[in-house]
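Lecture 7 notes: from sequence to structure.

We start with a single chain of 187 residues. Read the sequence below before looking at the structure.
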Amino acid sequence: MKTFSQLLLLGLVLQACFADHRVDVGLPKEYEACCGLQPVDFKHSNGSIYMPNVFTPNGDGINDLFYPFISDEILEVQGFTILSASGDTVIFSRPTVLYDRLNEFAWNGLRRDGTLYRGRFKYGMRVISKDFKLRLLEGEACSVLCEPGTKELKAKKGCFYPSQAGDSGKAGKVDSTLTNKETDCLK
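Now the structure, written as tokens:
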């Protein structure tokens, strides 16, 4: 009986050693207000603008840059500015958005000191249509870092990513039939 008890104890110890110790981490607090609170499609004159409400600046080439997606009827985006969630700190700004140089004119998630921003932020810009009408556009979105607990944002209703920007007839609008293409980031 003593041998059986020792074998049983040894078995339990070995099972504990080889057990999968993954802990299901909940959504980090910084991301709780992400997705679904703000509109992502905006009309202006005859044009349209799509602003994703979440992006993942991890350098994998998928949803790394935050910028407005515009239709052909939009002439220019000016004063593109990213502010902290409270709106008291400018994190990023560009006088205009040059679409042939997005790596310089879109926000890559970095603060001015070179660290990655995490969580909710505010954005603002002036949008000029080809018929020279001006619209001020403001909203909120989230910079999501690739970290445990963010997997629920992968399929959360109301989360729209840069990779879901429409093209051709849907330019400047979200195309919710497209996937967010995130395979490795949101865990």
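Strands lie at 41-44, 47-50, 54-55, 69-70, 74-84, 90-96, 119-129, 134-143. Keep this in mind for problem set 3.
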